[in-house]
Amino acid sequence: MEDSRVLLVAVNARFSHASLGSRFLLAAMEVPLRTQTRLLEFTINEEPADLARQIAACQPEIVGIGVYIWNRRLVERLVPLLREALPTVKLVLGGPEITHDVQSPLATSVDCVIRGEGECLWPEVCRDWLAGRVVAHLPQPQPPDVAGLVMPDHEYLDADLRHRNVYVEASRGCPLACDFCLSSVESGVRHFREAAVHESLQRLLDRGCRQFRFVDRSFNLGGARALRLLAFFLERLQPDMRLHFEMTPDGLSPALRDLLIRFPPGVLHLEAGIQSFDAVVLETIHRRCNLDAAAEGIRWLVQEALADVHADLIAGLPGETLVQFKAGFDRLHALGPKEIQLGILKKLHGTALVHHEAAYRLRFRSEPPYDVQETSTFCESELHTVRRFAAHWDRVVNRGHFPASVKLLMQDAPSPWARFDGFSRQLEQTHGKYGIGLVELARSLHDHLTRTCGQPASEVRAALRQDYATGGRRQHLPVFLRD
After folding, report:
1. Tens digits of per-residue pLDDT, 453-465?
2. What are the backbone angles phi and psi of residue 43, rounded to the nearest 5°?
């Protein structure tokens, strides 16, 4: 492996995730520093010893690693291995897991911690060290003026565009101030220079990129900028284009709807964060949301805009009960989103959740992902119920392997939660919570629908066969479904 004086190391959750933050840091480095710097990307499924060996093979003088909730434990194992393999290397950590946890053993074990956004500080640290100047831990600076940052589209390789998610960004920050979110730590929204964003997107389009995943928080609250960005893509629409945005569903203006409805089905993948359908709970965590407008917005996105909507709920929020959570799920399900993601509340370093711990007796796991274990209104066994339900819902419903069979399961259900929960409980008894194969799922659906729900076996078999056919798996039809 080619030697590099400076290495940026990104440890991603999976191969399909290409690190946008690392590419912004690369783009911020001017020549000749940029020519001396390389990016190495790994995943959390790799062994720390293998990562250390590949990093050491480059013989770097400086190694920078981004630390996130998903990779922290691996980085904690990697750092001492790098110390052993490269005794003189300068180790730099950054990222949200370190920014608000600078007194942790991990932070104090390295040479320098960069807090907050690092586009300005990272090149400065590298220049100082390579010139022999002393660098100490740095105070957290004011966020950089993103209008002056270099867009990092040129840091994506052609192979990235073909095989991985391409993440892009038009703004940073969030107008909302939810207590559980790191975006609430800073105030306001900072916009990149609009012309630079459009030019960057055009360069990616010219290179063949057709799938864009925007990381902006609440993209649709960007006003006229959001409208012009959607118009940009409409003017350049391609048959295989796929656009991913996070939207606030109660903020769909008439002008925005006029644009969204012009996209063909399958182009728009929209994340709509609800988190809770209880107004008191949302007020407690300082999340501003008109729930009736949000429900109508999701319904419109699904039925009128024909978008693929991914909607979120969070279990364990201060003051919410399992009964309220179930009711929220049923209300959300009735709106018809393609995916419902059920998450568990997490206590991220630096967020305002700390102010609710005593009043609501919030008890969090001390290890990543810092998920809540119990609250004054949501006991530990109830949170296990949500975890079990969420794992099975994701495997059976969100992944889309059994649409006809799920429709049969959920039809005429007074409570979609109760209906699927019954199946989930049986599935856990038979197969556990994770690692269930498609054949086992098909058999479990068949048995539950026929024996528990009393559905005619012929209808159940027809639905399962249809699922296998539409999913392109006709040749893999299980034996029990063959004629």
Report:
1. 999 999 999 999 9
2. -125, 165
